[in-house]
């Protein structure tokens, strides 16, 4: 709506045909790697063919996708952008933060249900403070970013998240279940502040 209200016409570049080869290689590669990793427990470890087979084939598909993306005229994902040092650093930082946060989000429900013997409902309720903790600092950190810059705000947020996560890991075994809610909220607060760069 803002673009329509601003007036003026902007020429559109033709999107070109869909990179079907790249789409197939990327999709199949990612799915095979995830499938191989998910078979680890059922197959008795990483060394079994049921695990290594899909992972090796999936990594080969991803390598073929990278080679194809460098030569295709309109690749599905232009990996040549990674030649820019600033862009590569931003991608790496986003990946590390996402892996740290979303990896924990996948493990926390399992921790509450398997280790703490909580029901699925209680595990979900215990994760609500994490959502609130991430939502509250976002507008505040956005205003702080305008004043002091995104780098300082992101460093403070990531430091809060890292320190709280390390302290919770040390005392998780002897901490009451109810006290996990403030911990999740504090970790999410650091993530919410760190995301507004």
What does it look like?
The protein has 197 residues and is an all-alpha fold. It folds into two domains: 63 residues; 114 residues, no CATH class. It has ten helices and no strands. Helix 7 runs parallel beside helix 10 and helix 9 runs antiparallel to helix 10. The protein is flat and about 45 Å long. About 3% of the residues have low confidence.
Keywords:
197 residues, mainly alpha, 10 helices
Quick recap:
This protein starts with a helix and ends with a helix.
Topology at a glance:
Blueprint: H1 2-6, H2 20-38, H3 40-43, H4 49-71, H5 85-115, H6 120-126, H7 128-135, H8 137-148, H9 150-171, H10 180-195
- Please write the string of helix (H) and strand (E) elements: HHHHHHHHHH
Radius of gyration: 22 Å
Low-confidence stretches: 170-174
Shape: flat
Specify the helix fraction band: over 70%
- From the N-terminal CA to the C-terminal CA, the straight-line distance is 25 Å
Number of structural units classed as domains: 2
Q: What is the number of strand segments?
A: 0
Number of helices: 10
The mean pLDDT is 75
Query: Structural class per helix/strand content?
Result: mainly alpha
Portion of residues in beta strands equals under 5%
Question: Main beta sheet: strand number and arrangement?
Answer: none
């Amino acid at each position: 709506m803002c673009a329509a209200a601003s007036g003026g016409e902007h020429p559109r570049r033709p999107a070109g045909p869909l990179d079907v080869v790249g789409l197939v290689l990327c999709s199949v590669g990612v799915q095979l790697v995830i499938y191989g990793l998910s078979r680890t427990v059922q197959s008795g470890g990483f060394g079994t063919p049921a695990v290594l087979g899909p992972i090796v084939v999936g990594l080969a598909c991803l390598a073929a996708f990278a080679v194809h993306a460098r030569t295709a005229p309109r690749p599905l994902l232009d990996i040549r952008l990674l030649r820019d040092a600033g862009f590569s650093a931003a991608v790496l930082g986003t990946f590390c933060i996402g892996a740290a946060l979303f990896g924990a989000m996948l493990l926390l429900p399992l921790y509450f249900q398997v280790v703490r013997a909580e029901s699925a409902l209680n595990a979900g309720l215990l994760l609500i403070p994490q959502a609130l903790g991430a939502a509250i600092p976002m507008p505040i950190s956005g205003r702080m970013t305008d004043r002091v810059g995104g780098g300082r705000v992101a460093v403070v947020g990531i430091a809060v998240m890292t320190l709280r996560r390390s302290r919770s890991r040390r005392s998780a075994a002897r901490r009451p279940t109810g006290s996990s809610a403030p911990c999740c909220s504090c970790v999410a607060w650091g993530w919410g502040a760190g995301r507004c760069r």
